[in-house]
Prior knowledge:
Layout: E1 5-14, E2 17-24, E3 29-35, H1 36-58
Antiparallel strand pairs: 1-2, 2-3
Amino acid sequence: MAKTLSEFTINGTGADTYLLRFAIDDGETLEVNATFDQLDLIAEAIDDLLMADEENALEVVSEE
């Protein structure tokens, strides 16, 4: 079962590495190291998904 994200942080740890910290609504936390390139791919995927959702939300439905 998917858990609900309650908070997240991203901090640079130096030398092209970043620490992502995810807090879950039950108090559990997950820490993940990622490179700049990995974060860039994640950001692109999120942007693509949000843009598609926005386009769908703004789509005009014809009543023919």
